[in-house]
Amino acid sequence: MSRSPGLTDAPSFSGCFHCGLPVPDGAHYPIQFEGETRQACCRGCQAVAQTIIDSGQGAYYTHRTVLPATPQQAEAELAQLGLYDLPEIQESFVRVEAENIREAALILENIVCAACIWLNERHIAGLPGVLSVEINYATRRARVRWDNSRIQLSAILKAVSDIGYIAHPFDPGRSDDIYKRERNTAIKRLAIAGLGMMQVMMYALPTYTATDMTDEIRLLMRWASLILTIPVVGYSAWPFFIGAWRDFKRRMLGMDVPVALGVGTAFVASIYSTFTGRGEVYYDSVTMFVFLLLTGRFLEMNARRRAGAAVEELVKLIPAATTRLPHWPARDEEQVPVARLAVGDHVLVRPGETLPADGEVVEGDSAVSEALLTGESLPVSKRVHAKVVGGSLNQASPLVVRVDKLGADTRLASIVRLLDRAQSEKPRIGQLADRAAAWFVGLLLVITVFVGLAWYFIDPSRILWIVVSILVVTCPCALGLATPAALTTATGRLTRLGLLTTRGHALETLARATDLVFDKTGTLTHGRLSVRRVVPLGGRSAEDVGQIAAALEAGSEHPIARALRQDRPEGERLAAYPSRVLREAAPATVTASDVRNTPGRGVEGTVNGQFYRLGSPRFAAAGEAPPESAGGESWVALADESGLIAWFALADTPRADAPAALAALQRLGLRLHLVSGDAEAAVKTTAATLGIADWHAGALPEDKLAYVKALQSEGRIVAMVGDGINDAPVLAGAQVSIAMGEGADVAQAAADMVMLGSRLATLGEGVALARKTQRIIRQNLGWALGYNLIAIPAAALGYVTPWIAGIGMSASSLLVVLNALRLSEFKQEAKPVPAALRSQLSTLR
Amino acid sequence: MDILLLLIPLSLVLVGVIAWFMLWAARSGQFDDLEGPAHSVVMDDDNPPKPDDAPKT
Description:
The complex is a heterodimer. By secondary structure, chain A is α+β, with helices and mostly antiparallel strands. Chain A contains 31 helices and 29 strands.
C-alpha cells in the first residue's frame, strides 16, 4: 500500500486528513486534531472529520487501517431520510417493542475496517434516545434500538451520514431470522455434546486403565455417565434421529440411519448393562461420536451460508421511496414509497438516484448507468422516449419517467427469476455421494443382520454386544467426516488465499474443471477506461493537450472524462475507489471556463483564452478519420478554433497480473475461453494480449449461457469467472462459478466462489488447492473404507471388544481430520504483501 | 477411593453449571459475532476525550 493511511506512521503525510486524497491547491478546509491543524480536501471531508473529532472519537484516525471513501451524500437522499419516519414505511423493517421503543436493522455502507465499526457504534450509541446499537463485523449490519419519543430514525440515519457512512434500513426477512435461530441451536447442541463428551471421557478412562477399581465406583461412574449422556443423545443427537425417521418414512437410507441406529443401540445397550450390571457401556463412544459429527455439520453449515442471499440482494437495488409528480407536467412533488406507485405515474429521478421501476423518459436528457443490470460499464444516453430500466442509476441530470412496469413485471424481476431457475438447474453432485453412502449403509445393515443371525446359533448371549460392536466400530464416522473435514479445511485455507467458497460443491467441481470461461469486463481488465495513447498534432506536446483535456472534463462524471483527467497510472487499490481516481486530476495549472456539455458528443469551453472542443470525432474533428487503431480503442478528438490538435485513444486495460495468472492456469491444463459482451475489436485485443485462443465478442447473457451449455454438452466441466448481474444466470449455469469481489454484490451472492481481492493468481492457487483437496478426500475415503473392511469382519468374528471398537472409531476419525488439516499448510505461489496487517501493527504501537 | 463417591456427583453438578452457562451464552448472543470483538478490544479509548469535547449526550 503506497498510501500510508495512519498518521502516526506518516508524519509528513500531505493528503486530505480524512480521505487521503491530494489537497487541491488553494483549498482551505482546516481541521483541528490533537492541537495541530490538518488540511482536508473538500468541505465534505472537513465536516465529517470535524464531527468525528468533536464527538470525542478522534481515536478513529489513529486506529484505522484503510482510508474511507470521500463522503458524497446526495442531497436528494438526505431529503428522503425524513420518509423513514412515516409509520407506513417503517412497517416493513421496524419492530415496535414497547410504546415508544423501536428496533430496526440497518445495512451500513462504506465500512472498510474495524475502526469504522468502532466509530459507528460509538457515534450512534452517543445519540440521546438511542438505547442500544450492535454492529456485526462480519455482515456489516447494525441493529439499533431507540426511544421514539426522544429521537427519530431519520436523525439516527443523518448522524451516520454525518460521519461519512450511509445507513439503509432493511427488512432482515425471514431467512435471516431462520438462519440465526438454526445457528444458535447448532451451537447449543454442540456445547452440550462437547461438555458431555469431555466429562464422560473422564469417567471412562479410569475404567479402561485402573486395575484396582471397586465395583461400586465403577457403577457410580456408569450412572454418572448415563446422566450426562441422556442430554447428549436426547438433545444434541436429536437431528440425527429426526433425519433417520424421515429417511425411514421415505424408504431411503441416508447417513443418518446408521448414526441413529449406532447411537440408539449403543445407548440402549449401555442403559441395559448399567441397570443389570452386566456387559459393557459405550457412553464415551456415543458422546464422542455425536460431538464429532455435530462439529462437522456446524462447520459445513457456516460455509454454505451465503448462498440464499442472491435474490434478496438484487431486489435491494430498487429504492424504498421515490419522488412522484402527481400532476405532471405541473412540477409539484411528493415523496412516496415505491410500493405505492402505479403504472402511468410520473416520477422525478435526480442525478445520483436509482430508477424505481421500468418506464419511458418523458422529460430530460441524461446518462444512465445500467452497469449492474447489463454489465455495460459506460453510461447510456437517455432522452425523451427512451426506455429506462428499474435499478439503473441516473448520472447526469434530472429525468422525468413515466412508469410502465412495476414490481414483478420489471426487467430486474425477470433477471431474478432467470437466476432462480438457473440455480435450481444446478447439478447435484453432492446427492451422488449421499447415494453411494446409502448403499454402504444398506450393506452395513444387511451384514449386521446376518452376523446377528449367525451368532444366534453360535452363542446367543453375545448377540447384542457383537451387533453393537459392528455398529459402533463401523460407525460411518470416518466415512462421514472424510469429505466435510477436507472441504472445511480447504475452504478455510482458500479464504485466506483470497477465494471465498459459498457452495459446498464448489471445490469438488473446481478440481475437476476442464474449461475456464472468463467475462472480460472487470474480470481480466480493470473494467474502466484509461488513456492508452495520445497523438498530439500541430507541434503540441502530449502533456500540453492532456492538461487541456483534463481541464475541459474537470466537471464531468462520464467515464471518458475520468480517463482523461487521470494523468498517471495508478495502482490496483485505487481502481477500487473510483471516487478517488476522479480526483487524481492533472495539476491544476489550467482551468476551463464557459464549459458547455453536449451529452453523448463532447464538451466545449475556453482554456487560457482559447476556445476548444473535445469529444467524438464527429463533434470535434469534423469527421476526420482517427489514426490507425490497434483495435478495441475508442478515439476522442481535441480541436481548437483552427482545427484538430490531438487524438486520445481510450481503452480498457488488462490487469497487470493477468498474463502470469492465465499462464499458471494453462500450466494446470485448463482450457481458457473469453466470452464478452464487448465489441469484437476490444475483445480480440485483450485475448491476443493474454494469449487466449478461444474468444467470442458481443455475447448477450443468453449467448454466454448457451456457450457454457454447449461446452457442457461436449462433456467439458466449465468454471465461469465473471462479475455483474448480467453474468448471474451464466454463473449459475456453469458447473462452478467464481465472481470477482469488486463486482456487483448480487453476482457475488449467486456465485459458488468469490474472489475477495483482485489478485488473479488466486484462481490458479484455487484450482491447485481444489485438486489437492480431492486427493486428500480420496485418501480419507480410502482409509475409511479400508478400516471398515478390516474392522467389520473383526467385529463380526467377535474379536473387537467394545472399547477397542470405540478407540478404533475415534482413531480412524482423528486420522481423517488430521489428514485434512494438511490442507491448511497449502502454500500460495507468490507472496502477497500483508500491507493491511503491517499498517495495522504500526498504528498499534 | 471413597472420595470419588463425593467427587463424581460434584463433577456432575459442575458440568450442569457449565452447560447452563454455555446455553445462556448462546441464547444471549455471545456467539453471534465471533470476529468483531477481537478487533474492538484494541479499539478501546486509550486517551479519553477532554471534557470540553465529550460526546453530546
